Amino acid sequence: MKEKIQYATPYIETFRSNKIATTYDLEIGQERVRTIEYDAPLSVDDEWKIGVIVGPSGSGKTSVAKKHSGSDLYTSSHWTNAPIIEEFDKSLSFEEITGTLTSVGFSSIPCWLQPYETLSNGEKFRCDLARALLEVNKSLIVFDEFTSVVDRTVAKTASFALSKALKRNSALARKKFIAVTCHYDVLEWLEPDWILDMRTGLLSRRRLRRPNLVVKVYKCGRDVWPLFSQYHYLTGSLANSARCYIALIDGEPCAFRATIHSMGHKNARRGH
Question: pLDDT tens for residues 96-149?
Fold first, then answer.
């Protein structure tokens, strides 16, 4: 079903606006009318879990989201100087909060004790995702400017984590999520049930599949550990006898593993 949004912007007559109108051969006093036509997105009553409204800046994404969501768009809640773990609704259990933080990819336990303002943009984005998902009495979350403030690697990994959380986390079973974004590179990672592309105004109902990742694992030296030590929630020290391995995706380090000898077991090693 086709929908239409029409805006009429009145002409405000000033010396400078008249100067622009005469310089560029515009009609003085003529209001500016803009019409956006598009396929209506799926209703909240339909069967779906994740939807996306995507398109370039100025294509009407936010206007369409506001019209059809029936709720305010989520950007970033007000955060105080309290530790992140204290920033969620008091009615939520400790397990619900920590489980959701972990499920959206924010699993660095020491960071849960930091205030929001001390986090990186990627960490803030994941916190915003967790807080949006845990908004009490909200079954529909419409997240504006989705992944706009993070680099594209974080955007993809966070999108995958969100998709997995919404589809597998029983605590989020009743939640529906609409991402409003100008970035097309997250679509395959979100695996949405429907996509409204504002470039064309067309709605497609399909579930995209994530691309395959090729992970290569190599034995490495101890000198690689400092790249990862800051994210380890226990001690950052590494035993002198540790054997170290690094995983790469497209040549970029993504994971580290160290093992040490397992006492009492011949030719056996355990995770360090």
Answer: 999 999 989 898 888 999 999 999 998 999 999 999 999 888 889 999 999 998
Domain boundaries, the chain: 2-38, 40-205, 215-271
Helix extents (H) in the chain: 15-23, 61-69, 94-103, 121-133, 152-168, 187-190, 226-229
Exposure b/e, 199-237, CB count within 10 A at least 16 = b: eebebeeeeeeeeeeeeeeeebeeebbeebeeeeeeeee
As a whole number of angstroms, the distance between CA 156 and CA 188 comes to 9
Predicted model pTM: 0.83
Q: What angle do CA 168, 169, 171 make, to 5 degrees?
A: 145
Query: Which fold does the domain 40-205 belong to in CATH?
Result: Rossmann fold (3.40.50)
Residue 112 CB neighbour total at 10 angstroms: 19
- Give per-residue pLDDT as tens, 189-226: 999 999 999 999 999 997 778 888 899 999 999 999 99
DSSP for 154-172, written as a single string: HHHHHHHHHHHHHHH-GGG
What are the residues whose beta carbons fall under 8 Å from the beta carbon of 214, sequence distance 6 or more? Answer: 249, 250
E strands of the chain, at which residues?
Answer: 2-9, 32-39, 50-54, 140-143, 176-181, 194-197, 202-205, 215-220, 243-249, 252-261, 269-271
Three-state DSSP state, 257: strand
CB-based burial label for 139 (10 Å; 0-12, 13-18, 19+): exposed
Cβ–Cβ under 8 Å, residues 185 and 47? no
Cβ neighbours around 3 below 10 Å, total: 15
94/88 Cα distance (integer angstroms): 10
Residue 186 gets which letter from DSSP?
A: G
